[in-house]
Amino acid sequence: MNISQIENKIQHVIKSFHQDTFIYDLLLAYGLPKATITRLQQGGLNLSKVNGEISWKKKLFFKSTESEDVHELIDDIKTDDKVIRHSPRFIVVTDYETLLAIDCKTSDTLDIPILDIAKHFDFFLPWAGMEKAQNQIENPADVKAAERMAKLYDEIKKDNATETPEEVHNLNVFLSRLLFCSFAEDTGIFEKNQFTNGITSHTQVDGSDLNTYLDKLFEVMNTEYGKRKNLPAYLDAFPYVNGGLLRNKHYAPLFTRRSRQAIIASGELDWRAINPDIFGSMIQAVITPEHRGGLGMHYTSVPNIKKVIEPLFLNALYEDFEAAKGNKKKLTDLLHRIWKIKIFDPACGSGNFLIIAYKELRRLEMKILKQLNSFALSNISLGNFYGIELDDFAHEIAILSLWLAEHQMNQEFFKEFGRSKPALPLKETGNIIHGNAINLDWKKVCPKKDEDEIYILGNPPYLGAKVQNKNQKSDLEHLVRPISLSKNMDYISCWFIKSSNYISNSICKVSFVSTSSIVQGEHVELLWPYIFSNNVIIEFCYSPFKWSNSAKHNAGVTVVIIGLSSNINCEKFIYTDNIKIKTENINAYLASGKNIFIRKESKSISNLPPIYFGSMPRDGGFLILSEEERNKAIQSDYRVLPFIKMIIGSKEFIRGEIRYCIWIEDNDNKAAYNIPFIKHRLDKVREWRLTSDAESTRNYAKFPHRFVQISYKNSNSIIIPCISSEHREYIPVGFLDKNTVINNKGFAIYDSDPWVFAVVTSRIHMNWVKVVAGRLETRINYSASLCYNAFPFPIITELQKKELQKHVYRVLEEREHHSEKTLAQLYDPDKMPKGLREAHHQLDLAVERCYRSKPFDNDEERLEYLFKLYEQMILEERTKGTLFEVETKSRKKKNG
């Protein structure tokens, strides 16, 4: 069952609500077998013999009451051993006015009026085999620490130069040492508050001597006890650290009263609660913007890292753990297995993904050891964690961060088992390589044997084709054949290509965070045929979503998460809107369906009328007029009027902005030049074009009255905006008269029947566009070749065309009812007028009846149908020509 069907069935349960059958009707609504529910109702599967109770093993504990307080009742039930031993997924209690529920796996709770259950249908989706994705929240301590470190950096930077790479590096090394000391005094490596109290007690309030104090302190901590001489007790009390952190000489910066106080304020935080991955946030806060942008660094927060590692390996390990409970051999085998797992991040930055993966494996190891009553120490080695990082400082930070993660986990281990490994001196560990991941042999960085269980993960640099430097372009050319394909590829493609090579024909798996660009537009056909040719499939994915992080400059980016495997027969899941949906196959557009690629088409495969890219002025703005400029020009010389037309693109059409252009046909050029206003404007166009770097633009200086690219026709048209918000449910399209020029930010369909308007503004077309279109930032970047020409639409009858036309006029009428509003306001999904929404809904139904008589239940079903139809149409086109050509030939033959 799909989500829409479940929601509809629950609505029916509420409409025909009966207390005696409510719980059974609810279970049936989620697609559980009728025969099974009948057995449960008759008592065959019910482990409870108490009236009003149902105890169904691993599924449900249900209790109804007429007299007891439901909140007190559920509190008693959730701790009742007789209930817990049967491991119900859900505990549900109701007095048939209020419904309370607990999801025993996720600890989610529900407290609602029972008749509102349809609004919360997603709570019980696991009954239908759809798991709810768990969103971890940010650790508030991490956020506060990132803010404190950023503030400290800002204060220090006021009095210290950070203009050269060496100066930036020196400051970053200092901050890494400072972070270590903050951790150390709160986690038992130093005495409690030893570092912060030392600064408070032994330095001047104005900060003037703090740098010399810290230089001496770091030197002491890098000196073994036996080699220390004539030190005051407050310095000698600090332990020997080693591990490379303090080995090289880096001088502390100069301080003021404010920056000294910022260090003390940072030390006052409880760093025990802070994840070592905060270093990633610190790096983003302190590295210069130019440096950060050049490396394509993107700090990833802990909750988002878990979206990568949980479906990649952690969920499966926990499922094996649950299945092994009570079986010593299975638990021991699982323990030995996780000791051998290798984690590899080939763009590791400051080590965030490696840190969180390490900590999660350590926590699972503790659970297993507790089940075994074992006295062993941890045997998960940092030597099994591999990384590659281009930036030398981030590389050093990753090594330090891993050590701190190990120390934190040793503390957790000690708290649980009363024993642990010693903290100091630090040991250099972790296989973190400094270098370019694209030029390195990954099998040498992370050696692989046939039986090795290796998980590659991370958040590689994105960098679109237009912002790559020469070295990055060269990296792509090194990997991609033919080289011409690499010119339009996102830089992250390198990591997908290399990882697919690495895992091919092995048990290894991959999961990367990426911008959604690699599963949209022409990028799909450039990259994914190569990936799939390695016998690698998409095992799971997260549909495009926005995230942010705890770094100082919190950057929201639209991303996807893609998991790759060479196990073709594995179960496959799509995570969308926090729902986990099982599917037979995931294609390169992250949709359920076969592995097909939408190719660019020069004309419609569906016999839709031709579409034209709008006219491009490339004029320096001198052919374009505001409404005020147009009115003034006409007032000063009425002869201007025949040479002015309205011009519209995406922005003007959607936001209701008005602009005009000077439009002169070749045979009117001489007359137009006799008008001073126009002559002045055309002279400016000529001058601007002559200064252009593009030869084609300079050539057009000879024709200043012309647009550089002309598609305008002196006829009515339909406009489709090039750029439209991804949040809209429909693309706002419209009719324009023959005196309006569509510019290069819009597409034009000339002399078209109204039914075409219905097709391009329909929901099913929007479904297609959202999947195959490229993006401008996050907005939809409509493409004639992929969105329109490749869109599969069946040949329809004249009667169907008239039906569509009727609905088009209804939509236009509803727009007219709100003529004071712009299309941006009308098509805001949260504010769309009810009448307009209903008109579009009826139009959608009419368009979809052109495909089949049975309505589609949801967007996933629409897309799956479109992909199948596209595949069929392309196959027929290759063998027989387009469907239209086939039909035309048949008619000609009949007519002789």
How would you describe what is shown here?
44% of the residues lie in helices and 13% in strands. It has 34 helices and 26 strands. The strands form 5 sheets. The chain has a 10-stranded mixed beta sheet, with helices on both faces. The protein has a 5-stranded mixed beta sheet with strand order 1-2-3-4-5, covered by helices on one side. Helix 1 (3-15) runs antiparallel to helix 2 and helix 6 packs parallel to helix 12 (278-286). The model is unreliable at 285-298 and 549-555 (pLDDT under 50).
Q: Keyphrases for this structure?
A:
ten-stranded mixed β-sheet; single chain; 26 strands; alpha/beta; 896 residues; 44% helix; 34 helices
Q: From the alpha-carbon coordinates, what is the Rg to the nearest angstrom?
A: 33 Å
Shape: globular
Average pLDDT, all residues:
87
Strand order of the largest sheet: 6-15-14-12-13-11-10-7-8-9
Class from helix and strand fractions: alpha/beta
- The share of residues in helices is 40-55%
Number of E-type strands: 26
Distance between the termini: 51 Å
Q: What can be said about the biggest beta sheet?
A: 10 strands, mixed
How many helices? 34
Q: What proportion strand? A: 5-15%
Low-pLDDT ranges: 285-298, 549-555
Reconstruct the topology from this structure.
Blueprint: H1 3-15, H2 22-29, H3 34-41, E1 53-56, E2 60-64, H4 70-77, H5 81-84, E3 90-94, E4 98-103, E5 109-113, E6 131-132, H6 140-159, H7 165-186, H8 194-202, H9 210-221, H10 233-236, H11 257-267, H12 278-286, H13 289-295, H14 302-324, H15 328-340, E7 342-345, H16 352-372, E8 385-389, H17 392-417, E9 431-434, H18 442-445, E10 454-458, H19 470-479, H20 493-503, E11 509-515, H21 523-533, E12 537-547, E13 557-565, E14 572-576, E15 579-583, E16 612-613, E17 624-626, H22 627-636, E18 644-648, H23 650-655, E19 659-662, H24 669-673, H25 676-690, H26 695-699, E20 717-721, E21 723-724, E22 734-736, E23 740-742, E24 746-750, H27 754-760, H28 763-772, E25 774-776, E26 779-781, H29 784-788, H30 798-816, H31 823-826, H32 834-849, H33 859-880, H34 883-894
Parallel strand pairs: 2-3, 7-8, 7-10, 8-9, 10-11, 12-14, 18-23
Antiparallel strand pairs: 1-2, 3-4, 4-5, 6-15, 11-13, 12-13, 14-15, 16-24, 17-19, 18-19, 20-22, 20-24, 21-26, 25-26
